[in-house]
Write a structure and sequence with these properties.
With 512 residues, the chain is an alpha+beta fold. It is built from 13 helices and 15 strands. The strands form 3 sheets. It has a 6-stranded mixed sheet with strand order 5-6-7-2-13-12. A 6-stranded mixed sheet has the order 8-15-14-11-9-10, with helices on both faces.
Length: 512
């Protein structure tokens, strides 16, 4: 038995009807590179079964303390059934990128059951109509509850189910699987002990808060921090529905790095925040809703020490960064975003990067749950806006990965929404299809963002404007890799007119 940390339990308490708190993503594979050119569902099941012992996430479920008197525990599920968690489905016709996004959004909107290990995997076939995908590709959609892992531990989890070569390696004989039955008496006894520890933990938090307050006060006096208290309300603040939309845009890593290098001190994350700020500017301007002042994003940060890298669960701090969406010039916006990021990092350091983690260890779960339910049911007022969106940076593997011999060639990340924050971005950098790429994915409330294709186009246009302005020349824009394939019966006509420019169909502006 292992008790959840305060921050792990926080994601359970934050989960209410319409706000599931799991993370995940869609990975696309080219099975033509696998031995025999084919990957069967039973091969994926066999591979997973051979690696169940490599991560506790696979077979453990939650055991709740009676009467909610303490944080839940992870215990081994004696009735674990792999085939319940791994499902085999097909993409609805016509099997294009839009249909994949619709299916991913629908699956992602369904919460995970709490009486079973909190993960699901869907093997999706039928990706027959997506340009730049080889024939026979399949996708894998993975959902894991946030109480089990964050973005950093998620990368480690993905490495477990992948190989570095097309050959699927045998992880070796697993150790004996020991199932320990949760004891109600033991959990109640531990809750009693924890209750006696609370006053001392509160005193420790107060000891941290005093020096932190002085550091923040001194930093403001010396103008190391910028005031982000006057935050604007947008369409992404309010009551969130049960329905989701997702989409993504892909950027070449070398181009993003070239943009970064045009301004000393700028980071890859600064560039991506600039792109998000520009995309939001374009989208809200098209709706005639662009605020005069800058939008603000929340940015999760990993606060693990080197010794804690192997630890599971969540260890996440937070910082707020102004996206400077009021600045039209993309190069000027990038410079301003870099300054804002430096200010936000200084504020986080002054507060203490682990302050939020320690605070959740002493915060009663029922108080947090009540606050979340109130916020979700009513939507917060303008004075209660904490940030307009979330942008998290998740580094992937810097080398090519394979699943049962199939090469990973593309991805789409999925994130959770929070009360009053109906738009979540994930920046995922990795080697895919033997090439460095950065995927900017977003998950949103469908009522707040009814036209995800339009917002995805705004992000693409924001990147192209920044690239052209920063690099000082007009470079050949990359076509979005989401066009519909030409029907087979028109293949001959297309070949005959290969030299003519074929107009690109506009993406559907609204999901079903």
């Amino acid at each position: 038995m292992q008790q959840l940390s305060g921050q792990d339990a926080m994601f359970l308490h934050a989960e209410i009807d319409g706000l599931p708190q799991h993370i995940g993503g869609v990975s696309i594979y080219d099975q033509s590179r696998a031995p025999g050119g084919k990957v069967r569902f039973k091969q994926i099941l066999a591979m997973l079964e051979s690696r169940l012992h490599l991560s506790p996430i696979f077979r453990r479920k939650l055991a709740f303390v009676p009467y909610g008197l303490g944080r839940p525990y992870w215990v081994e599920d004696p009735d674990f059934d792999l085939e319940y968690h791994v499902r085999h489905i097909a993409l609805p016709k016509p099997g294009d990128w839009r249909q994949l996004c619709i299916l991913a959004a629908r699956l992602h909107s369904v919460p995970l059951r709490r009486d079973k290990p909190m993960w699901e995997m869907y093997v999706i076939e039928g990706l027959n109509n997506i340009e730049n995908y080889p024939d026979g590709c399949f996708a894998v959609l993975l959902k894991v509850h946030h109480c089990a892992m964050d973005g950093a531990t998620g990368t480690q989890f993905m490495n477990i189910i992948h190989d570095l070569t097309p050959e699927t390696k045998d992880p070796g004989k697993p150790p004996p699987w020991i199932v320990e039955r949760p004891s109600r008496a033991r959990m109640l006894a531990q809750a009693y002990v924890d209750a006696w520890k609370k006053p001392g933990q509160v005193v420790d938090i107060l000891k941290q808060a005093g020096p932190a307050f002085m550091r923040i006060r001194q930093g403001k006096k010396e103008q190391h921090f910028r005031n982000l208290e006057d935050k604007q309300r947008t369409r992404f603040q309010g009551k969130i529905s049960r329905h989701r939309v997702v989409d993504a845009r892909h950027f070449d890593f070398e181009e993003v790095r070239a943009i970064k290098n045009t301004q000393p001190g700028t980071t890859i994350n600064d560039v991506m925040l600039t792109i998000v700020g520009g995309g939001l500017r374009k989208y809200l301007a098209a709706k005639d809703e662009l605020p005069d002042k800058s939008l603000v994003t929340g940015c999760p940060i990993d606060v693990r020490t080197p010794e804690e890298r192997a630890a599971g669960g969540n260890m996440v701090g937070f910082m707020n960064v102004a996206l400077r969406s009021e600045i039209e010039n993309p190069v000027e916006r990038m410079a301003a975003v870099h300054d804002e990021a430096v200010s936000a990092k200084a504020y986080a350091e002054a507060l203490g990067p682990r302050f939020a983690v320690d605070l959740t260890d002493v915060m009663p779960g029922n108080v947090l749950s009540l606050a979340v339910r109130t916020s979700a049911a009513t939507g917060l007022s303008e004075a209660g806006v904490i940030f307009n969106t979330i942008v998290t940076n998740v580094p992937g593997a810097p080398f090519q990965l394979y699943l049962c011999g199939a090469a990973l060639i593309d991805s789409l990340s999925l994130g959770p929404l929070l009360p009053n924050v109906g738009l979540f971005h994930i920046v995922y950098s990795a080697v895919q299809n033997k090439k460095g790429s950065i995927v900017l994915s977003f998950t949103a409330c469908r009522d707040m963002l009814p036209d995800p294709a339009l917002y995805a186009d705004c992000l693409q246009a924001s990147f192209e404007e920044l690239r052209d302005a920063a690099l000082g020349k007009k470079t050949a824009g990359k076509k979005p890799a989401r066009r519909k394939k030409a029907p087979a019966k028109k293949a001959a006509a297309k070949k005959a007119t290969a030299k003519k420019k074929v107009p690109r169909r506009k993406a559907a502006a609204k999901t079903r």
